Every structure is written in C-alpha cells, then in structure tokens.
Amino acid sequence: MRQSSHRFRGGRLILTTAVIAAAVMTSGCTRIRTHQGYQVDKLLVDSIQPGIDNRASVEATLGTPTFSEQFGQGDWYYLSRDMRQLAFASPKPVSQTVLRVSFDGAGNVSKVSRTGLETVQKISPSGDKTPTLGRHRSLFQEIFGNIGAVGAGGMGGGGGPTGPGPNGS
C-alpha cells in the first residue's frame, strides 16, 4: 500500500510540473490588443453637422484633432485604430476609423467623411537594400570617386583662372 501512494505522489508531481510548464509556455502566446488615437464616440461624431458647426464647435465637441491638413482649407483628421498582436508577431490592424472634417473658407464645416480599414496599405520591404535609380557604385567608388573633383575648373570651385577672383574682377 505504501508503494502505491508513493507512485501516486510521483505522478501528481509530474502532472503538476507538466501543467506549470504548459502554462509558462503558452503565456507567451497571449493576444495583445491595443488602441491608438482618438476614442470614437458615435453620438458625438454624428452631432457634427455641415453648415451648422464651425472649427470652435467641432473642437469643443470632438477635442483637438489627431492631425490637420497643412495646405488648403486645413481639414481636421481624427484617427482611431485597434491593433492585435500574437506574442512576438507584427501587430495587425483590426479596425480603423479616419474621421475627416472639412471646412470652407469661413471656417464652417462643409463635409464630414469616414474611412476604415480599406485605406490601410501593407508595405513589404524587399530585402535588406532599398532599390534606387541611377548608377550602382561600390563602396570604394563612393569613398574615392570624388578625389580630384573638388575645386576643379568649371565645377563651381572659386577663383580659378576661368572664374572671377576674390575682388570680382
């Protein structure tokens, strides 16, 4: 009888160790959800009306925009994005809302528009080099390629026999 209880304790220890090991290994596989940007409140967004609201009333209702247009009428953008990430993988957008509030010349709201995930673009870098147009030069050509070119006549160097002297003559 004593031997069977000893086996039971050993089995329980192995089972407990296996459960703890499995919990530790799967804890790195948890999903991470994050929110970035503006917290969209549908009721507040729907209350912005073209022809009625202006910049001051939009800011009082929605707050400061995430960013604003630098040229043109100065449209305001409110960006909201929910991301999901599994362990060490790259984060992926789950939902996105870009709220654009357009203003006319007098600062009154002319249009309110929304876009979603359809505007998200996936950019995949190609290898470890950025392709460029033009000559393909080696490291040594880049380092030593300009030797003798600095100050050469006709290259913008000052004061040679073909250019004006320091007094302009």
TrEMBL record:
Keywords: Cell outer membrane, Membrane, Signal. GO terms for molecular function: protein-macromolecule adaptor activity. InterPro entries: BamE (IPR026592), BamE-like (IPR037873), BamE_dom (IPR007450). GO terms for biological process: Gram-negative-bacterium-type cell outer membrane assembly; protein insertion into membrane. PROSITE patterns: PROKAR_LIPOPROTEIN (PS51257). GO terms for cellular component: Bam protein complex. Pfam families: BamE. Residues 37-111 form the Outer membrane protein assembly factor BamE domain. This is Outer membrane protein assembly factor BamE. The lineage of its organism: Bacteria, Pseudomonadati, Pseudomonadota, Alphaproteobacteria, Sphingomonadales.
